[in-house]
Design goal:
By secondary structure, this protein is of the alpha/beta class. The protein contains 17 helices and ten strands. The protein has three domains: 143 residues, no CATH class; 44 residues, no CATH class; 162 residues, von Willebrand factor, type A domain (Rossmann fold, 3-Layer(aba) Sandwich). α10 crosses α12 and α10 packs across α17. InterPro entries: LolB, Uncharacterised_CoxE, VWF_A, vWFA_dom_sf.
Length: 380
């Protein structure tokens, strides 16, 4: 069978074999791995599509001469052997989010082999209260690795934003990040060599930088712990950890449901912080905002970032009133319906509008956008 026909057979399933022919041993293994996962889709029955191997049934499995797939551990080994990294990540994400394959989160052996990724981190945080100590220890590895990756990525952005902005003045300090390409080309055009189509750079030029003044500012991150906000909780912990060490910025991290928990003392250890967060429960946003108001030292040099879906279980009137008071005293008030890489919010727009009407800035941000917002305020 040609490679193209085998690809079509993998896409269309066993019913297409009369037209495409069979599969090679390696592709039969891929087909069995895909069937083990996607064969459990309820929609297949409605369309009268019969697939083998669904739900781990070893006696009703397609896949020809491919490896027999019996357990989640076997399946993980197979996909890591047969698929590229991007495909593995998608398959593991679907296993967790779409099909809720429970032993991904309850079997220490599976947790020890699965590739750490944000989807798995979310699932761990949502179910860690159900895990026994052995499983929790294995799950912690997932939390540590994904948080490390997120902190690494955001730390680069924080350093870029807070190391100072370029000025128009030239500099004698030769640093690659400050290389002035436009000015360099303009100054060296007389050295253009037509035969080589190159400009000989005899004198490179560089920008100077002006440092931002980082003093007397306060940032209070208020994070809703309800289940729908899991991604935002993760990114809030990472963002707080990256901002916490900045000179001149006093960072607080406060988690809330119907209760308010000040987690600032643990903000420098986002892994430990996330392992202690309790997701779910009710929501009293007004109570959290009142707590934040009590932390403010200098209203005109303070930022309150409320990260919530705005579905208030407490008093909406009290929430709007406290928000208005904070805005009127000069505090920058951000109401973020999402703080994550997607920034696709789902929230109560009516309450968000009421808060916007009294002075709050309402929207959704990625962590890097929040860092930029804070940097702009600190530079004033």
């Amino acid at each position: 069978m040609s490679a193209d026909l085998e690809r079509w057979r993998l896409i269309l399933g066993p019913a297409a074999e009369r037209s495409t022919g069979g599969l090679s041993q390696e592709n039969a293994g891929r087909d069995a791995a895909l069937d083990w996962l996607y064969g459990r889709d309820d929609d297949l029955g409605k369309r009268d599509v019969r697939r083998g191997g669904a739900r781990g049934d070893s006696d009703d499995r397609s896949g020809g001469d491919g490896d027999s797939i019996v357990t989640t551990v076997d399946w993980l080994d197979t996909i890591h052997r047969l698929f590229p990294k991007e495909t593995i990540e998608r398959l593991e994400r679907d296993a967790i989010e779409r099909y809720q394959i429970n032993d991904v989160l309850t079997d220490p052996e599976v947790l020890g082999r699965i590739e750490p990724n944000p989807a798995l981190l979310k699932a761990v945080l949502q179910t860690k209260h159900l895990m026994n100590p052995a499983v929790l220890a294995a799950a912690r590895r997932i939390v540590e690795e994904v948080v490390r990756q997120l902190v690494e990525k955001l730390s680069v952005q924080v350093r870029t934003v807070f190391t100072g902005s370029r000025s128009r003045k030239p500099s004698f300090h030769r640093r690659a990040r400050d290389f002035d390409l436009k000015r360099t080309l303009k100054a060296n055009l007389k050295h253009y060599r037509p035969e080589d189509r190159q400009v000989a750079i005899e004198r490179p030029h560089f920008h100077s930088r002006t440092s931002k003044r980082l003093e007397q500012w306060q940032l209070v991150l208020l994070v809703d712990q309800s289940g729908s906000m899991t991604s935002s909780v993760i990114h809030s912990a990472v963002t707080a950890a990256c901002l916490y060490a900045l000179p001149g910025l006093k960072t607080h991290l406060v988690a809330f449901d119907t209760n308010v928990v000040d987690m600032t003392s643990e903000v420098d250890d986002p892994v430990e912080l996330l392992m202690k967060v309790q997701l779910g429960g009710g929501t009293d946003i007004a109570r959290a905002v009142e707590y934040a108001a009590g932390l403010i030292e200098n209203p005109r040099r303070s930022i309150v970032a409320l990260i919530t879906d705005f579905y208030e279980g407490g008093s909406e009137a009290r929430l709007v009133h406290t928000t208005k008071q904070l805005c009127e005293q000069g505090t920058q008030f951000l109401g973020l319906a999402a703080l994550d890489e997607e920034a696709n919010p789902s929230y109560d727009r009516n309450l968000a509008k009421r808060m916007s009407d009294v002075g709050a800035h309402i929207g959704a941000m990625t962590p890097s956008h929040l860092v930029e917002f804070v940097a702009e305020r600190l530079g004033t």
